[in-house]
Predict the structure.
Amino acid sequence: MSPADPLAELVAALQRLPGIGARSALRLAHHVLKTPREEVDALASAMIAVKDRVTYCSTCGNITDVDPCVYCTSPDRDARLICVVEQPENVGAVEKTRGFRGRYHVLMGAIAPLSGIGPDDLRIKPLLGRVADGTVQEVILATNPTVEGEATALYLAKLLKPLGVRVSRIAMGIPVGSDIDYTDEFTMSKAMEGRREM
Ligand SMILES: [Zn+2]
């Protein structure tokens, strides 16, 4: 590939994106070629703007345009409560419930030995640091209800409990609108464990 071949360069760059194979990259590159100049400008500027203006919060790991983020600095949010999630996008899912007024901590993944992701690859040390300062009273583990998410929650609970904080796990179970008959064993046992008094 010579630098004089911008199309080949674009194909190569697109192919480095997650989930984009050689054929998709070629198709996208030809799409860009056919697209009006102003639309391509808008796409390129949007990509640059993300790199220039959006970052990760140095405290909680959430995506933000100010560091620390609004969740970490807002006086309306309870600093005694931290909700731990795997990915920045999970923060939005918890926020949607409007029921949580504490702060967040994003791990940037879950422990997955088969994919070579160990505790040191996640933002676990910063979490322990935040808890160790004495303000935090409860850590809610809202990692995904997957094998990796469960393993991560158990691992964190073991590290956090000796620090003298309450550690809780979100209740998981049968999705609303589904039938108990079609619920797998894992989900059903989680639903039973997460039961609350009525
Ligand atoms: Zn933050």
Residues 57 and 66 are 8 Å apart (CA to CA). The first strand starts at residue 55 and ends at 56. The first helix runs from residue 6 to 15. The chain is about 45% helix and 15% strand.
